[in-house]
Each structure stands twice: as C-alpha cells, then as structure tokens.
Design a protein that fits this description.
It contains 5 helices and no strands. The protein is mainly α and 112 residues long. α1 crosses α5 and α4 packs across α5. The longest helix has 34 residues. The chain is elongated, with a radius of gyration of 17 Å. Bound molecules: heme C.
C-alpha cells in the first residue's frame, strides 16, 4: 500500500512538473515574441499584418516538418503563403529562442 501511494505521488509530481514546465515555456516564448516585435504584426488569435499565431497552428497541424519550415521562413522572411504582404527577415531571436517561439506557435500559442 505504502509502495503504491509512493508511486502515485511520484507520478503526480512528475505530471505537475511537466505542466509547470510547459507553462513556463509558453510564458517565456510569448515574452520573446513580444520582445522581438513578432506581436507587433501577429495577433495570437487573429490577423494583424501577418496571420494570427493560432491560425498558423491550425494550418500546419498535420505537417510534421512545419517547425523546421517555419523557423527557416521567419529567419529569411517571405511572402505569398498568407497574402501579398511580406514578412521581413527576422534576425532578432537567437536560434534557440526562435525554435521556442515557433514551437509555442505550433502548439496553438497558449497563454500559459
Ligand atoms: C513587419 C511585420 C511582421 C513581423 C515583425 C513578423 N512577422 Fe511573421 N509574418 C508577417 C506576414 C505579413 C506574414 C505572412 C507571409 C506570407 O504570406 O507568406 C508572416 C508570416 C509568419 C508565419 C507563417 C509563415 C508561413 O509560411 O506560413 C510565422 C510562423 C511567423 N510569421 C512568425 C513570426 C515570428 C516568430 C516573428 C518574430 C520573430 C514574426 N513573424 C515577425 C509579418 C510579420
């Protein structure tokens, strides 16, 4: 009995740890998106100049290569996927920051 409850509490601890981390990741990624000006052109839910990040998540939800594609696209800039307004190249975020931001976008840009 003791053993079982120990296992149960270990599982619970691991679960709450992983939710805690996901929340911290979302908060950090959305703070980076603000810091690097992404949110000046992108709404979380809907289009501003560029598409809303949740619209982006929806478009690529079945695309396993989306993370790499979008990291490259944001870095280089581009046009034509969402309309005729171009996204300028984004040099601000470091590689790991950009990966975190794109991962956050593809996970549906949760608030936390
Ligand atoms: C000056 C405005 C502007 C800024 C700043 C900007 N974007 Fe964009 N973004 C756009 C536009 C416009 C598009 C649509 C481009 C297209 O239609 O191909 C876009 C498209 C995207 C897409 C979807 C690309 C695709 O091919 O589907 C992602 C992801 C994205 N932006 C992320 C970011 C991130 C992350 C940042 C900050 C580092 C950022 N954007 C900064 C305007 C901007």
């Amino acid at each position: 009995m003791i053993r079982r409850s120990l296992i149960a509490s270990a599982v619970l601890a691991a679960l709450s740890l992983s939710t805690g981390t996901a929340q911290a990741d979302a908060a950090a990624a959305s703070a980076s998106a603000a810091k690097y000006g992404c949110l000046g052109c992108h709404g979380v839910a809907s289009k501003v100049v560029g598409p809303g990040f949740r619209e982006v998540a929806d478009k690529y939800k079945a695309d396993k290569a989306a993370e790499a594609t979008l990291i490259a696209k944001v870095r280089a800039g581009g046009v034509g996927t969402w309309g005729q307004i171009p996204m300028p190249p984004q040099a601000g975020p470091k590689d790991d920051e950009l990966k975190a931001i794109v991962g956050w976008i593809l996970s549906g840009a949760p608030d936390k």
